[in-house]
Amino acid sequence: MPDQLQPLSAGAELLALDRQHVWHPYGPMPGRQEPLVIASASGVRLRLADPSGQGQGHDELVDGMSSWWSAIHGYNHPVLNEAATAQLGRMSHVMFGGLTHEPAVRLAARLVEITPPGLEHVFLCDSGSVSVEVAVKMCLQYWRSLGRTGKTRLLTWRGGYHGDTWQPMAVCDPEGGMHELWQGHLPRQVFADAPPGGFDTPVDPAYAEHLRSLIAAHADELAAVIVEPVVQGAGGMRFHSPGYLRVLRDLCDEYGVLLILDEIATGFGRTGALFAADHAGITPEVMCLGKSLTGGYLTLAATLCTERVADGISQGEVPVLAHGPTFMGNPLATAVALASIDLLLGQDWPTEVKRIEAGLREGLAGAVQLPGVRDVRVLGAIGVVQLDHDVDMAAATRAAVREGVWLRPFRDLIYTMPPFVTGDDDVARICRAVVAAAQEG
Ligand SMILES: *Cc1c(COP(=O)(O)O)cnc(C)c1O
After folding, report:
1. From the CA of 291, how far away is ligand 1's center (Å)?
2. Residues whose CB falls within 8 Å of the CB of residue 276, separated by 6 or more in sequence, listed in order
């Protein structure tokens, strides 16, 4: 086979083709901003493809984003590479209908073992959004099987983000978010106010009462409450007290509503607990996992549910869950996911997350004083600087790259969630970049 790879100096040509043909996340066509061309990545560093000046003198950028929460072990990790390569030599894929295989079975068993007690059954799918679709379908079908056909709506709090396909869009924050355009077309769900901010704050009884009155008023039509536990990610990077999860757990029990926790961003240690539900010590009926499930190597998500939900569905009039993605249980992705979980749990990850948390607190503390900065908050390996205006994306990105760091701000937020393997010097560098982006963005 001739080498089909373009020489690295083809960066300019790649950019031209990219502009002509390639859609990027949340972008117009053609894009208005030039993406950076990345040739490879290793550890916590992204290597730029081209010496064209994109890196403003840097060949590599320290990754402050973990590729959107996913690359917790950094890039090109020997253990994950080995898991992928070994599985590649056996099979990269076989269908999951009528067939099964070791990586998927072992991964499902492992997820049951490490998630909150009571979650027993695992539906493997391709992406976070699809796992939310599956979660919603499970809950609606559960009630339908029990003859409660009126229970078809969802309740969530404002400020959330659950993905970009149809059902997830319907429970994203309806105002100012990326899916505002579709209000009026999406299923109309029930929205509570956003939870009061602050991880270390006591439960506000007035807000708990607000949740109670909404759930009580809609109990007959609610299939489930769905929320992101402890950290609301792409809806605004807000933190709340785990106490509200206990409030929701109690209210769902009292009023006969299922609870879905979307841990796609928070799962696998990011907030300082293995799962954010662990901060509250609760078990939801349904839990969604994704993003860092494969350590950022391949796309894979999982929807876990309790015995009660699985039994309800399987004893109904249509006793099957009619969902089965082509790449369900993909052997390559499940093999890497298993290796990623073993890698995480085989090290003292809580200490690493605490170390990064301390570094972010120290490095970002001064940002509160900057003009235009509204709030600075840190939880686990997540650091956020919120401005009092929308970020000038181009200027903020340029400022971060000048410091040798990759950041991807949005709305009024400059934020970072570095890989857990980021060293102290690199955490400090990321903080300098966040501060520079806040000053110039
Ligand atoms: C990213 C995200 C999703 C969507 O996952 P995709 O893999 O992008 O479809 C859903 N929920 C939360 C909380 C997320 O952070």
Report:
1. 7
2. 228, 229, 230, 231, 242, 245, 261, 263, 266, 267
Residue 8 has pLDDT above 70, yes or no: no
pLDDT digits (tens, 9 = 90+) for 200-245: 999 999 999 999 999 999 999 999 999 999 999 999 999 999 999 9
Q: In what order do the strands lie in the sheet with 373-379?
A: 373-379, 382-387, 413-416
CA of 434 from ligand 1 middle (Å) equals 23
Question: What whole-number distance in Å separates Cα of residue 271 and Cα of residue 261?
Answer: 15
Determine contact, residues 332/107, Cβ cutoff 8 Å: no
Task: Please check whether residue 200 is in contact with residue 380, taking contact to mean a CB–CB distance below 8 angstroms.
Answer: no
DSSP 226: E
Instruction: Say which DSSP state 94 is in.
Output: -
The yes-or-no answer on residue 291 being catalytic is yes
Please name which of 38, 34, 39 lies closest in space to residue 16, comparing C-alpha atoms: 34
Quick one: which atom of ligand 1 is closest to the CA of 127?
Answer: 7
Contact 210, 196 (CB under 8 A): no
No. of H helices and E strands in the chain? Answer: 14, 16
Q: Is 210 exposed, middle or buried (0-12, 13-18, 19+ CB in 10 A)?
A: middle
For residue 127, which of 288, 322, 329, 290 has the smallest C-alpha distance?
290
134-150 pLDDT, tens per residue? Answer: 999 999 999 999 999 99
Q: Are 414 and 387 in contact (CB under 8 A)?
A: yes
262 is an active site residue:
yes
Q: DSSP character for 431?
A: H
Q: Which of 75, 151, 291, 297 is catalytic?
A: 291
Instruction: Tell me, yes or no, if 161 is annotated catalytic.
Output: yes
Phi, psi (rounded to 5 degrees) for 251: -65, -40
> SS3 breakdown of the chain: % helix, strand, coil, rounded to 5?
40, 15, 45
Query: Is there a catalytic annotation at residue 151?
Result: no
Provide the 8-state DSSP code for 351.
H
Mutual angle of helices 424-440 and 393-402, in 10-degree steps: 140
Cβ atoms within 10 Å of 19's Cβ, excluding its own: 13
